[in-house]
Amino acid sequence: MTNFTRRDMMKTTLGAGAAVAAAGAGLLTPVEAAAQAAKGDLEKGAKLRMLRWSQFVQGDIDQWMANTKKFTELTGVEVRVDREAWPDVAPKASVAANVGAGPDIVLDFFDVPHLFPDKVVPLTDIATELGNKYGGWFPVAEKYAKRGNTWIGLPLGAAGACMVYRKSHLQAAGFSSFPKDMDGFLALCKALQAKGTPAGFALGNAVGDGSWTYWLMWAFGGKMVDDKNNVVINSPETIKALEFAKQLYPTFINGTLGWLDPNNNKAFLDGQISLTNNGISVYYAAKNSQDPKIKALVDDIEHANFPIGPVGRPTELHLFSQAYVFKYCKFPKAAKAYLKFMWEKEQYEPWQTAAIGYITHALRGYEENAVWKSDPKNLPYRDTVKNMLWHGYSGQLGYSSAAALNDYIVNNMVAQAASGSKTPQEAAAEAEKRLIRVYKV
Questions:
Q1: Distance from C-alpha of 279 to C-alpha of 208, rounded to nearest angstrom
Q2: What's this model's pTM, rounded to 2 decimal places?
Q3: What is 29-34+42-160+319-387's CATH superfamily?
Q4: Of 128, 160, 274, 415, which is least surrounded by CB within 10 A?
């Protein structure tokens, strides 16, 4: 049993009081003061190592590291941040989970902590506190981060995707605004192709930019599995989506069957295509380019949310990111303190702004961040997490949903039907067989 003496109480009280006084003097914000005051509660000599995905926009990592440095200055906890290409983070995290050694904190994508839920530290306390403070979490965030009633991850948000298009090319094709339904979307793509300014959407094994294939399936009412994880992909609704894909594909620029995540960015900035789905990184790259040809695109780039299909509601999928802490971490209090600090408004909003909204928030309270009002072209990205479903919809997340995503089952199905290598019925039947194998494991 720990003996807590009157002297200890006085030290703690005086330390907190000094921090609050410093905040009152304009030296520290209340959140910074609280972090400094809590320093004595953290593990002595705490050091942390974080593994996170490499930045898509430079402002992200610059501000992330500035916030990390501030945390270290306030608490004395050194945080080493390692960055890897995002497809490499999950495999390294899985190895760390199996051997019980490696990074303390991982910032990863989708449902990875559900692959080893018994190996991560519960984050329910800080998730609850942040949720109560900032207006609550969007439902999809809870779906990704909770296992039962326990938070096993802390949602960062999503690299939201919108329809990225050239305004002048859309107008030249006879459209004054971006279509909001599927018939209008198909008509636009046909008109752009006829004008020699085609669309291009990734149909290769692209996890991020290939997510439009899930949107397409869901928009017509199709889905991989039902609420009980029964495979239901081979349905009339899925067939309708694949028939639509077959009409859409001829409007694309050649080569999209082999496109991975970087290809549509390059094609758009090179002027080869006029329409694609992407994060705000294309716009960010154009704004910050030193190439006059690319810089000239800035005024012509516009963004729109995905059209709504026959189901009558948004059915988007975005590159969702969350953090988790391994149980082998020697300093779990410090790890949780770091995450909470980074998610607080004083750190989160400047970070989100530095990346011009590349990551859309998972907490409702950040809808009011000035980044969404500073440039009208940013605004469509504000609601991407609010609009999105989880990739295992409408079933549960875990080994099977992760395997289905990693095996590109939906991407391949849409690519086969779109290109004509299989009929829509054949493509759906093959996807069904593959999913049954995955979901029976």
A1: 9
A2: 0.91
A3: Periplasmic binding protein-like II (3.40.190.10)
A4: 128
